[in-house]
Amino acid sequence: xxxxxxxxxxxxxxxxxxxxxxxxxxxxxxxxxxxxxxxxxxxxxxxxxxxxxxxxxxxxxxxxxxxxxxxxxxxxxxxxxxxxxxxxxxxxxxxxxxxxxxxxxxxxxxxxxxxxxxxxxxxxxxxxxxxxxxxxxxxxxxxxxxxxxxxxxxxxxxxxxxxxxxxxxxxxxxxxxxxxxxxxxxxxxxxxxxxxxxxxxxxxxxxxxxxxxxxxxxxxxxxxxxxxxxxxxxxxxxxxxxxxxxxxxxxxxxxxxxxxxxxxxxxxxxxxxxxxxxxxxxxxxxxxxxxxxxxxxxxxxxxxxxxxxxxxxxxxxxxxxxxxxxxxxxxxxxxxxxxxxxxxxxxxxxxxxxxxxxxxxxxxxxxxxxxxxxxxxxxxxxxxxxxxxxxxxxxxxxxxxxxxxxxxxxxxxxxxxxxxxxxxxxxxxxxxxxxxxxxxxxxxxxxxxxxxxxxxxxxxxxxxxxxxxxxxxxxxxxxxxxxx
Length: 484
Ligand code: ADP
Known about the structure:
Structural class: alpha/beta
Bound molecules: adenosine-5'-diphosphate
Distance between the termini: 13 Å
CATH architecture of the largest domain: 3-Layer(aba) Sandwich
Helix content: 25-40%
Strand content: 15-25%
Largest sheet: 10 strands, mixed
């Protein structure tokens, strides 16, 4: 089976969120699962990707190529390499005019056009190599036009006659709303993006909606999120389309890339450990506290946060009460994140007010995210919604009990310790209200004093199977359904 996997980000090259983790792990897991699955991945060459460090070579056999976007002939080059430790082939689309913008995503007027170029280039490269994929696997709005292009822009090409499409939604809230004019450049029927058309949404051409109506199969990253997005609360006004297509919509929980996230082997940690011997975790905890010039006796819990500071993540729920919690309870908070200035300001304010209790790093730091997962006792994720969420899974594998809102992938992965005493792996709350989050924090802090209960939960959490092999097998089933 040939799979064309198209994505706007991928670990280890470039990452802003969970999509990059999926792109870095799923294609490799697919080819591990079945050597007959051959994956070619297509990704933009952003200015921040050091091609030579990652072993890419210029595809001299292709030379300079171009895509015609309306009246504009856009030249590009291709770099070729392999995803580390796998035989997944990676093609980087090198077009500085479109992809050298300092950041992956922009608010520039041509944002959608940048990704139209990526998608047209992916088809172009497949044609030049005379490669026929069985499946085109698109991800989020940036590549959601692939299914529509397959039908309309490239429907004439016999090479794609048997190709079917899968669209994965990693976050429904980002929809790629743009000018209907771009249908022309993408080779799609213009009327579909106009009012009343299938691609029209919120007064614009919605790249994501186009994918949702045209893909043969749709997946999203957890079973609970798959159900939630069919309703008005989390459906982002696409719930009608999604429930109409529920027969082809599957929720598949993301896996964890244990090559990077495994406390037994993690190179970022002061010590390594596992469920049988937790002594290394105590060393990680001390090292983490020292890194932030904090100290805490063993009976004072350390609560970690690693997150984009976006509205979605629910930190607004902490605003009314967290100061009081810090004033009245013996606890340490260590937070890593960046994003909305007002949320950064909120955490900076707490760090200034409680210098002995709060450690904060505003920014993005891969190594520190590992050290927090290992060094903390509990991990806070009060997300309003969470398609899958990775950090709660990392936390559990690192013996760090998550405190989460019972939504999306958080609901599918974290079992509340008091609702299910013999099975619990963390703490969850159903109502996303500040007083409920605060009560759950108090419940966690109290439970931390019950050492036997806490330790048993840690061990259960660490022994769970979040492997990509399980997820990859489910994707293969989806590919087969798309092909039937
Ligand atoms: P989302 O994709 O919505 O951001 P996920 O939990 O699915 O949320 O994935 C977030 C990923 O990004 C995780 O791997 C997490 O460790 C990482 N991450 C988020 N913020 C930071 C940060 N400031 N520094 C390092 N890693 C971060």
